[in-house]
Amino acid sequence: MNENHAMALIDILFDYLISIDDHCLSVFLKKWPSKPFKNRKVSRRHLPVLSYLPEIDVYPNEKSANAIKTLKSCADDLSWGQTYTAKDFGEAFLENYGWTELIGSRGPVASEDIACGFLLLGPNTEYPKHSHEAEEVYVPYNSQAFWIQGEEDWLPRPRGVPIYHKPWISHGMRSGSIPLLALYIWHGENLAQKLHIE
């Protein structure tokens, strides 16, 4: 993996996140690692869902557009993973699902306080309801996506507006006719915890 690409993307993401006026984000950003980062070697890994990354529209905000362009340019140098197996949700889901961690217990920048990376879903893909101990914020880059939380119905969420999940609250997401790209940040005791499927 080209560590320079990952470090550049992390700096761009922090610049983007601090530009968002949202009180929930401040708790997470206080835990952002300071420089010099504690780096670790991470092997590059590719997934089928990356074939959809070029379809992600560039958001008209300059800072988020810069983050998306940088992600697209270095995606092949990152380590993309999956939390689930075909036994959980089937092969079709795995073909349309993946994430890459930039900061955390598995990413190229080590942190015990937060995990930060990207979730990518192919078109018309539902990430079923699940829950976890960690608090979480998603920032979607697409407007054609739906989110569910607790006993609520599926709701469209505007791109660029953070979505906050409290610990153990059930939540899920569903892409529309275009792929979904979302930035995520976790903080909690176990950053690599396997999620509880509802």
Rounded mean pLDDT is: 90
The percent range for strand residues is: 25-35%
- Seen as an oligomer or otherwise, the chain set is single chain
* Straight-line N-to-C gap: 35 Å
Specify Rg, calculated over alpha carbons: 15 Å
Instruction: Specify the structural class.
Output: alpha+beta
Per the principal axes of the C-alpha atoms, what is the gross shape? globular
Number of structural units classed as domains: 1
What can you tell me about this protein's structure?
- There is one protein chain.
- By secondary structure, this protein is α+β, with helices and mostly antiparallel strands.
- It has one domain (3-190): Sandwich (Jelly Rolls), CATH 2.60.120.10.
- It has helices at 3-18, 23-29, 62-74, 86-89, 91-95; strands at residues 80-81, 97-104, 109-110, 114-121, 126-131, 135-140, 145-149, 155-156, 163-165, 171-175, 180-187, 196-197.
- A hairpin with a 5-residue loop joins strand 7 (145-149) and strand 8.
- The protein is globular.
- The model has no long low-confidence stretch (mean pLDDT 90).
From the structure above, extract its key features:
29% strand, Jelly Rolls, 5 helices, seven-stranded mixed β-sheet, alpha+beta, five-stranded antiparallel β-sheet, 198 residues, 12 strands
Helix-strand layout with pairing:
Layout (H helix, E strand, L loop, with lengths): L2 H16 L4 H7 L32 H13 L5 E2 L4 H4 L1 H5 L1 E8 L4 E2 L3 E8 L4 E6 L3 E6 L4 E5 L5 E2 L6 E3 L5 E5 L4 E8 L8 E2 L1
Parallel strand pairs: 2-3
Antiparallel strand pairs: 1-2, 2-4, 4-11, 5-10, 5-12, 6-9, 6-11, 7-8, 7-10
Helix pairs in contact: 1-3
